[in-house]
Amino acid sequence: MKCLRLWLSKLSFRTGIILIVMSVICYVISFAQILLPISITAKSVLWVVFFGLAKTFQYSGLFVLGAEGIKKVKMWWKKRK
Asked: What SS3 class is residue 72?
């Protein structure tokens, strides 16, 4: 786990933002697929897969960004408003 965390922390700020955006996309897909006309079993499998991917991207992105990166994102968001 420490090896993975160390490797993720070496990635760039841009990579962290991309991972966070990917997590948002996976969250949207995981809930939007409920509207598809497919069986309940298929919907359940799709939900588990995309929700799991979303969580993986979310936590990976947070590890890449770190505390300083999260502060940068918050400052950018406040300036934007």
From this structure: helix
Instruction: Note the pTM of the prediction, 2 decimals.
Output: 0.77
CB 51, CB 30: distance < 8 Å? yes
What SS3 state is found at 10? coil
User: Which pLDDT score is estimated for 70?
Assistant: 77
The pLDDT tens digits of the residues spanning 27-49 come to: 999 999 989 899 999 999 999 99
> How far is the CA of 69 from the CAs of 7, 17, 30, 35, 46, in angstroms?
16, 9, 27, 36, 31
Helix 40-80 crosses helix 13-32 at what angle (to 10 degrees)?
140
